[in-house]
Specification:
9 helices; oxidoreductase activity; 49% helix; Rossmann fold; Short-chain type dehydrogenase/reductase; NAD(P)-bd_dom_sf; alpha/beta
């Protein structure tokens, strides 16, 4: 499955940001789209745009809602056909200083960024396996899921998504289901604003004094349409990891060297 024309994709967080970039790239290739997002206004704009190109249905969904996930999946497949391309993309960029970590902050970060991916996988993977027609799963993590920084909430959830994806890739290969993990660097999205608006009772948004610098960093990276095309290219190559730039390379090189250096050297032959 390389061009995917006539396939059906389910894209979480697809009304905006990277999810919208992925949806646009798929639409150009004749893929039917089930686009879900928690932001109804973004969904409406996405439907107006994407329906000019391909068949599209939109659904409001909080990816933490397992029952809601199943209901939306049923409705999407009833309207568009069987989903064989799954993009678990919805997420937030939580932040907390170590001294201010609280259980409710952990819960929000893990529920959205990790359990949201688990819910997508567990909703659609059994269907894909039962049909026996293969499929593709792309989970969105981050470069921070490969090399940690001091933002423990974000790094924890993104490392987990990377590990989930790498393991799932091995587990589903015999079913003809490919898995890739998208590990973007800076991308020009509104994730900082969206995270601040998703706080509920847990203050996990960036403090005001950091917002401008982080937003400038994100805007320095790839645009969402370029990322959408990178995802398609990564899928065609059946890449385990899909990157959006070179930013992570020196940090990966440093981490890998330190990891390898930490492994004990083999004992000398005949040593006692």
């Amino acid at each position: 499955m390389q061009e995917w024309e006539g396939s059906v994709a389910f894209v979480t967080g697809g009304g905006q940001g990277i999810g919208l970039g992925i949806a646009r790239a798929l639409a150009k290739r004749g893929v039917g789209l089930a686009v879900v997002d928690i932001d109804e206004a973004a969904l409406a704009r996405a439907k107006d745009e994407l329906s000019q190109v391909t068949a599209v249905e939109t659904f409001r969904l909080d990816v933490r809602d397992r029952a809601g996930f199943a209901a939306v999946a049923d409705e999407a497949e009833a309207k568009l056909g069987h989903v064989n391309l799954l993009f678990n993309n919805a997420g937030i960029a939580p932040y907390s200083p170590a001294a201010e970590l609280r259980y409710e902050k952990w819960d929000l970060a893990i529920d959205v960024n990790l359990k949201g991916v688990v819910n997508g996988v567990q909703t659609f993977l059994p269907r894909m396996i039962e049909r026996g027609q293969g499929g593709y799963v792309v989970n969105t993590a981050s470069g921070a899921g490969l090399v940690a920084d001091g933002n423990v909430l974000y790094a924890t959830t993104k490392f987990a998504v990377v590990g989930l994806s790498e393991s799932l890739r091995q587990a589903t290969a015999r079913h003809g289901i490919d898995v890739s993990v998208l590990c973007p660097g800076p991308v020009d999205t509104d994730i900082v604003r969206n995270t601040r608006s998703a706080n509920e009772n847990a203050s996990v948004g960036l403090p005001e004094n950091l917002v401008a610098d982080v937003e400038a960093f994100l805007k320095s990276g790839a645009d969402i349409d370029s990322v959408g095309e990178m995802v398609i290219a990564g899928m065609r190559a059946r890449s385990t990891w899909i990157h959006t730039g070179q930013e992570v390379r020196p940090y990966l090189e440093k981490r890998m060297k330190e990891l390898l250096d930490s492994v004990p050297a083999p004992a000398a032959s005949g040593a006692r």
